[in-house]
Amino acid sequence: MRRSLLGFPLLALVLTACPSSNPAGSGSISGVVIAPGAIQNGAAGLGINPALRNDLNAHRGEEIVPGEVIVKFKPTVSLQSASSLRVNGQTLSLVRPLALERTQLYRASGLDTAGTLALVERLAARADVEYAVPNRIWRALKTPNDPYYGAQWHYPLMNLPAAWDTTTGSASTKVAVIDTGILPHPDLAGRVTGGYDFISDPAVAGDGDGRDSDPTDEGDAEQAGEPNSYHGTHVAGTVGAATDNNQGVAGVNWAAKIVPIRVLGRGGGTTADIVEAIRWAAGGSVSGVPANPNRADVINLSLGGQGSCDPAWQEAINFATSQGAIVVVAAGNSNTDASGFTPASCQKVITVGAVGPDGKRAPYSNYGPRIDVMAAGGDLNQTFTFNGRSYPAGVLSTLRDDANQKWVYAFYQGTSMAAPHVAGIVSLMKAQAPSLTFDQALQKLRTSATPLTASQCNRPSGSDCGAGLVDAAKALTSGSTPAPPPPPSTRPVTTYVVAFFCTTRSCLDAGGDLAIDFSRSKLNVVLQTQERTPYSIGGLEPGTYLAAAFQDINGNGEYDSEPLGAYPNPVRVANGNVPNIDIQLLPYSASGAWAQSGFPREQVARLIEQKLR
Predict the structure, then answer these.
(1) What confidence category does residue 455 fall into, taking pLDDT thresholds of 50, 70 and 90?
(2) What is the CA radius of gyration of the chain?
């Protein structure tokens, strides 16, 4: 919803009238403006909503469930005799057998992360144990007539319109989306079949009952006030939103069935749940779970985290591959070598990095020898124009706007968005050749891809971006096809940064409103082309300042519920520079996170807009 701040009721701001001839000071502040991540977009009804954004989960370290260990025993061990374990005086109780050969999940009480890792080392050294690993936590990393297809710049970039002239898919092809679950978005009607909720912890699942046959996304927000990502619904829409139906957006595959499998909830998901979900998706049996009647031909894993591939992951993936499923995974969003991430570093997976609308590696995308191919993942530091309006250059797909209780379409960015493009393309290849194997699919994708130069990859060698950007049409035909059209013209996102001079030390008056001397405040403009963009504001006289910024995505100089941020504390300035005043931009929907700043958001936004005039 457009929120022109000139239409807001007058706020009780304390604006001290001062002469405009104030001498310039010698103080300054500097830092970086941090982009909010990936966007979404809501107009009335099923509209595009540029106010929603996703967390890239880029900077989390390795996470584990304290006290939980996955143990695979050697063939000589009777699992019946291993109902409990004792190691160096520590007792481990059996949680459950896993759907991996001779593998069980154990729990020891009273251990923190360090204690759990030490326990894993001791277990792995036992003569009767094949491997022991912690139960780690993972997180959500033809021209159709759909009205928003024109905003899906990512499809022409990968030559999908030419591919659709060869095939638009087959309803007999099944794509498992192992993610946060699914929502009944109208543009997914008729495209979803079966599925299961594999989250075993009711607190993480959010539905109170742990595992069940309902894969509905119950939300993944960890704190009150945080928006739910509905990540799996966005991923599913890219794979196979209802297409050529005069509604919403298009999917890569127009006919394939999506099998939603829920493994990520509040706080992510665990190795134990995910590896069993992979096995079940491929047609394997899991104790206590009904057989899967919709065995997957393709499995998409837009999730993961730090840490190299462990044996439990690899065993599950090997099983899926042995059953004919082709596993596609996201490379990770930390702008580092993908070999240190799971499942990106596993064998027998197609690891996908991300490019922006200009065909260059996105600034967040992982890289390195584990990358097989690149696909469109978006870059929200750039914008493009659709129907005369500027939008953030993310990947547009299906979503739910909780704040307005609407089904919408939203722009997200990340390798999580790149992977389902490739999963969708592989499902088109499967429709064309149902017996296609993993090795054959990977070979076709790599030989038909368009290599990236070192400059395009932003690395010493273009090979750090694998074989390059996928070309869907060439992958299907293994021959010459028309080249994809040029990418849409894009521009950096204009961001306004202001140092507001405060007339109180807290920047607030007794009533909690902003206490600002407007004439002694300074504004600067930065063009954001990367996740962290430096800024500096000089000419500040000694005093207390409030540092704030907003992204003017549509370029109209007005605050239209666009990303906004403020440094959380008043800044004291004397002579010289005050560094590290970093401003984290937040989507308008992130009211809970904004509240932590202590400053009234609407007043901050209105003052920035007023300063532009």
Answers:
(1) very high
(2) 26
State residue 2's pLDDT score: 33
Query: 146, 185, 229, 231: which one is catalytic?
Result: 231
Average pLDDT over residues 557-579: 83
Token couple for 534: 């430096």
Task: Establish if 211 belongs to a structural domain.
Answer: yes
174 closest CA partner among 385, 462, 430, 446: 430
- Read off the CATH number of the domain in which 68 is found: 3.30.70
Residue tagged 């379409």 (tokens): 409
Query: Quick one: tokens of 84?
Result: 């409990």
- Mark whether 293 and 436 lie in a shared domain: yes
Question: Which residues is 216 bridged to in the sheet?
Answer: 182
Q: Which of 253, 254, 236, 237 is nearest to 245 (CA)?
A: 254
Task: Evaluate whether residue 46 is within a structural domain.
Answer: no
Q: Specify the pTM.
A: 0.72
Catalytic residue among 55, 146, 170, 179: 179
Contact 244, 145 (CB under 8 A): yes
278: closest CA among 321, 309, 308? 321
Confidence of residue 50 (pLDDT cuts 50, 70, 90): low
Q: Which of 539, 548, 528, 544 is nearest to 577 (CA)?
A: 539
In this structure, the number of other CB atoms found within 10 A of the CB of residue 39 comes to 31
Query: At residue 539, what is the residue type?
Result: G
Does residue 179 carry a catalytic annotation? Answer: yes
Please answer whether residues 43 and 49 qualify as being in contact, where contact means their C-beta atoms are separated by less than 8 angstroms: yes
Mean pLDDT value across the chain? 85
392 and 454 in one domain? yes
pLDDT on residue 222: 80
Give the tokens for residue 262: 């829920």
Please name the residue ranges forming H helices in 282-414: 311-322
Helix axes 415-432 and 231-240, enclosed angle (nearest 10): 40
- Among the three residues 477, 501, 534, which one is the final residue of a domain in this structure? 477
Q: What is the pLDDT of residues 162-185, one digit of tens each?
A: 999 899 999 999 999 999 999 999
pLDDT tens digits, residue range 483-508?
555 555 556 778 889 999 999 999 88
86 shares a domain with 178: no
- Residue 268 · residue 229 · CB < 8 Å: no
Question: Has residue 479 got a pLDDT over 50?
Answer: no
Q: Which residue has the tokens 């030419």?
A: 162
Same domain, 436 and 546: no
Give the Cβ contact number of residue 18 at 10 Å: 13
Contacts of 550 (CB under 8 A, 6+ apart): 495, 496, 559, 562, 563, 564, 565, 585, 605, 608
- Whose tokens are 């209105």? That residue is 606
Residue-range definition of the domain harbouring residue 93: 64-136
Residue 201 in any domain: the answer is: yes
Whole-number Å distance between alpha carbons of 305 and 321: 22
429 assigned to some structural domain: yes
Distances from the Cα of 144 to the Cα of 73, 147, 168, 300, 428, angstroms: 53, 9, 10, 24, 16
Residues 262 and 205 in one domain: yes
Annotated catalytic residue, options 200, 229, 390, 416: 416
